[in-house]
Amino acid sequence: MRGHSSAGAIDARILDQAAEWLVRLHDGNASEADRRDCRIWQNASPEHARAWARAEALMNKLGTLPPELAMPVLQRPTAPARRAALAKLAGLIAAVPAAWLGWRTLQDSGLTADHRTATGQRRDIRLADGTRVMLNSGSAIDVRFDGQRRLLRLRSGEIMVTTAPDTAASPRPFYVETAEGMLQALGTRFSVRQDDGRSRLAVFEHAVRIEPRRLPASAWLTVPAGSKAAFSADAIDALQPAGAADDAWTQGMLLADNMRLADFTAELARHRPGLLRCEPDVAELRVSGTFPLDQPDQILSMLVSTYPVQAMRRFGGYWVTLSARS
Questions:
Q1: Average per-residue pLDDT in the chain?
Q2: CATH 2.60.120.1440 in the chain, residues?
């Protein structure tokens, strides 16, 4: 019988309830009352809390409810298919943390990050607490939620985070960890980018506190909405205004306003497989416009037709160099 197969197993009825709550909070119509009721249910017993911790871990690993389970639950509220889908979901919850590996092995191809994107790919996921995370091209994150905090580890690339109220019985702070330090969200929408030796934060709603690894708490900085800052492990740069260019990638666009061609090329290279560089003789050319990130070769054609540059292609277009037009 499900729920009684091993020591420490959770009662099947509680697993079913956890599955119901998981679907209810992620069907797109969850209200604050729903979240409150879920917290009340979690707090009703230690077993409820343990079942929800497993449900949360499963949701964080999958990024979204598997459609083959979610669709019968959401579309057929009284059908046998719904009961069967809920039973499967409860079974996955029961087997956390091991069973999700079998579910995702083929999709993840053995890669170790919880969630990642390939070059040129963007991905939007929803975590167990309702937080939305969009991964930019070539990005990777780990999700580490426990009883004390909600944590994302940004391994590489860039993410946009839209936090949600915590669904745990005791609300936990939300952090993003980079190689240079910690960022604590203060109820907000913000982006974080991991560069070589530096982290970059842009805040679009509310505020985020920067906590570099080697700075004392007295030197930490709270960045308000409409501002951005870069930081290393032992220093925080001066605040700068955050603008439309900082989150244009979430709409699939690259926005340039009098940008150096060298900087533009480096940004475009993050979204295009292969090698892309520009020669020093054109590095200071200024580029302006809005460009579609899903069509990098079209962007190169636009540059060649608009600016005095040429694109020299090698190895079947894998290696592209921008240089002065001869």
A1: 84
A2: 111-244
Segment 269-295 shows an average pLDDT of 92
- Helix, strand, coil shares of the chain, percent, nearest 5, are 35, 30, 35
Query: Angle between the 80-95 and 99-108 helix axes, to the nearest 10 degrees?
Result: 100
pLDDT of residue 100: 45
Q: What span, in angstroms and rounded, lies between the C-alpha atoms of 50 and 42?
A: 8
Tokens linked to 159? 């993410």
**What pLDDT is recorded for position 73?**
47
Class of residue 193 by CB neighbours under 10 A (exposed 0-12, middle 13-18, buried 19+): buried
111-244 carries CATH number 3.30.365.10 = no
Domain with CATH 3.55.50.30 in the chain: 252-324
Category of 321 on φ-ψ map: left (φ > 0), alpha (ψ -120 to 50) or beta: beta
Nearest to 310 by CA among 268, 273, 278: 278
Give the number of C-alpha atoms closer than 13 A to the C-alpha of residue 30, restricted to the C-beta side.
23
| pTM metric for this prediction | 0.70
Helices (H), ranges, the chain: 12-25, 32-43, 46-62, 67-75, 80-95, 99-108, 244-247, 261-269, 296-306
Q: Of 216, 214, 299, 217, which is closest to residue 254 (Cα–Cα)? A: 299
What distance in Å separates the CA atoms of residue 33 and residue 108, rounded to the nearest whole number? 36
Contacts of 263 (CB under 8 A, 6+ apart): none
- Phi then psi dihedrals of residue 35, to 5 deg: -65, -40
Number of H helices, E strands in the chain: 9, 18
Q: Residue 151: is it exposed, middle or buried by C-beta count within 10 angstroms (0-12/13-18/19+)?
A: middle
Which of 21, 10, 146 lies closest to 91 in space, CA to CA?
10
252-324, CATH topology level: Phage tail protein beta-alpha-beta fold (3.55.50)
CA dist., res. 268 & res. 263, Å (int): 9
The model's pLDDT over 111-155, given as tens digits with 9 standing for 90+, comes to 567 888 988 999 999 998 889 999 999 899 999 998 899 999 999
